[in-house]
Amino acid sequence: MKALYFDGSLALKDVPRPKPASGEVLIQVRLAGLCRTDLEVLKGYHHFQGIMGHEFVGQVAGPPGSPWLGRRVVGEINVGCGHCALCRQGLARHCLERQVLGLKDRNGVFAPYLSLPEANLHPVPPQLPDDAAVFTEPLAAALAVLEAAPPAAASRILVVGDGPLGLLVSWVLALTGAEVHLVGHYADHLSLTQPYGVITFKEGDLKDRNYEVVVEASGAPGGLELALDRVRPRGTVVLKSTYAGRYPLDPAALVVPEVRLVGCRCGPFPQALRLLAQRWIDPRPLIAHRLPLSQGLEAITQAQQPGTLKVLLDMREKVEGGGG
Amino acid sequence: MKALYFDGSLALKDVPRPKPASGEVLIQVRLAGLCRTDLEVLKGYHHFQGIMGHEFVGQVAGPPGSPWLGRRVVGEINVGCGHCALCRQGLARHCLERQVLGLKDRNGVFAPYLSLPEANLHPVPPQLPDDAAVFTEPLAAALAVLEAAPPAAASRILVVGDGPLGLLVSWVLALTGAEVHLVGHYADHLSLTQPYGVITFKEGDLKDRNYEVVVEASGAPGGLELALDRVRPRGTVVLKSTYAGRYPLDPAALVVPEVRLVGCRCGPFPQALRLLAQRWIDPRPLIAHRLPLSQGLEAITQAQQPGTLKVLLDMREKVEGGGG
Lengths: 324, 324
Fold this sequence. Notes:
Chain A is of the alpha/beta class.
């Protein structure tokens, strides 16, 4: 099969169809999403080599006799060792020996097929179209903010960054009843928050300070600078961004105002699927481009353009059945 | 009166005796402690100018008719505006208009007398000697760690740094029943934790990882590097150190393992006084040198020597009565 493969350079490469190990299933990919982290992989993040991509919705195609056969699924991206203390506590995503789909030691989803353990699968409700279900993973990541900074404690929350993740975070927070402010670059991105009642600002127009919670989802060091400037004493900054490079942290900026800086990564798939199935979150306005896998290189180039929201790779030409 | 005064250069300077404002008392200083932050002031921290010092025990000497007159006291160091939302929430230490004793817009304690609002005072129990009571402020700062990272959640805690603050933090944590490890430089400092059952390591000998909580009290950027290396996924790093300079933070080091970095500064005086009065904490082994105020410049020089624990300034030549 042809897959989008990175080994220092990026190419559509002929690779063998994956053979599911014991406890795994073979999944035929229907739609896949490009994430900012994929672009970081191209810069050397995790030194990953293999088939790229971790956001997908697909249909189980094997092995024969699997109870999952034919079901439409999304999948969690971390595959732990299953034995260590962290795995036994349900924290496989932090297993030191873990594989991560398309990011660490496991081939990803920019391909016609992938394999994944059954334990990672979540069935997609029938009424949920592919092009919403493909957002399950980033929506779950947005929902992780609710655990990192429980919103009950916060009357006003600022989200920094109007990319797909920042927008999803602002929507999820709005659904808790919080007063949510979003600061970003692009008027057309900010306008997508209108149905959720989020109050938006272009950079430079944000005058408010003393936010009890600030979520940094800008993907750039300037976002953390802004977050630490605007959080109130004893407030919380939730850090969602990973990027190459380092932020020059002044320790007094945390110690004197007793601010907490909380790293936050993956989140709960079942909650994300419920919000999508209920249509309380409709992520489809985030889709900027859809291309077939054969145009995977162009898709990457498009995703690299500043201000591009979600780029999807569509593998459904060869897939029977409907959806999305 | 002669006071240790900093205005870009440090000198024993003749200054007028303070006149307490309404709601304030005049306090005759008995003992004062030198803190690492005082040494940072000499490097330009907060651009402070005035009488230095914020750790003290003293005796109220005015105004006449004050219910506090003659009482031995310690005092909280932050003086808020009293009107803003933070002050009304009991968070005067985060008031944006606050003064801080010997650190920001208010003369400190390296002097025969200081003035302080009555609201900042705590009476010293009679059985508590001066040279233990003078540690109330740093012990309260150590106790603040219990709020920043509630120890019930943590089975093993690492403290980084064997200066006075690191040692006090390790003792306070040991009193919660936690398994406390301390990593530091100086064998004679580490040995002071023996009565508290703390397990100590010289740097280079610390093999353990996956601490649920790490407290960074080393006062140097290398301490945070070590803390982030040794904390477990989803663990907490409590940051106590302030220092000139910046730490080059890799955001992925927080985001991927979902680590929280919690700034932590001042703490509760009543709890500190109780631990001292019960002798559950005896800080006196931390005293390295005692000098009269007239030798204040020598005291600073001694405190600047690497590996020096607490240096005290003794103003009791002129003070009637006993203690310590």
